Here is the input.
Amino acid sequence: MRVTVVGAGYVGLALCRQLDAAGHDVTGVRRSPQPVREVGIDAVAADVTEPAELTALPDADAVVFAASSGGRGAEPARRVFVDGLRNTIDAYADRASPPDRLVYTSSTGVYGDHDGAWVDETTPLDPQTEKTAVLAEAERVATETAADAGIDGTVARFAGLYGPDRYRLERYVEGPVTQGYLNMVHRDDAAGAVRFLLTGASPTDGSQSGSEGVSGSESNEERVDGPRSSPTDHARGEVVTVVDDEPVEKWTFADWLADECGVARPEKRTKAERIAAGDLSAAARRRIQTSKRVDNTTLRELGYEFRFPTFREGYRAAVEAYTDA
Here is the structure.
């Protein structure tokens, strides 16, 4: 399968490496492509906000849009996630052989606040910031605009990402820790879930170094009206939440980390106590007040097997590094 990963950053580069190891023809796209080339993956330098640059993208059977706006505000996010995604679809739509699939990586932030209740793909979206409203709009582009171009779009809604270079161990063991739920997914499972949606292969199924999936032409032969899945791919035209098996309360998580690291459990604060300190930005205050638990039943029922099913497996390397130091 020929896959173009637009936004070969934290998750995108890990996905490139997984697909390449499995024998797929992978191209990573980013404004500064050197990190992609350094791991032996074909790379294209392009900015998704500049349509003329996207003519350099290679033909592909599948496109993954995993670009980042760099953590900036709503307008930069719109330029990348809405305009950039639309530019990418347009760049492929008129080709003689457009992609069969598109996967857009979104965020569970689009759910908003549910006071600790469970949410899943059927839960109505309630974005509570300008930026999460942009992400929700981009989800519609990924499914509706892509469908108009004859491309089957899928939204992979990521929970909070962690993993190499993004462990937050010290923050939790040193405290103070404010109450609330954590919904997380390890970087390798975020990438693995996208790979699974495209090819049907999980990181734990023993096929990571082999070749799975079918070519774009073979996949087209299996297409039927409406949202589609085949034995080798999943969730065409659908949304899938990508989160591990166990949303965890921050106080519980912090205590587990402290115990594993052999240090005293950290100081705890309620949400009210943290807000009363008066030093939070409006955005930070909204984050603290937002609470939900994200369900991964759909991804599990499709057949994905997690490499790191909970934070216990996912943070093991960080705990060992901390205790060794």
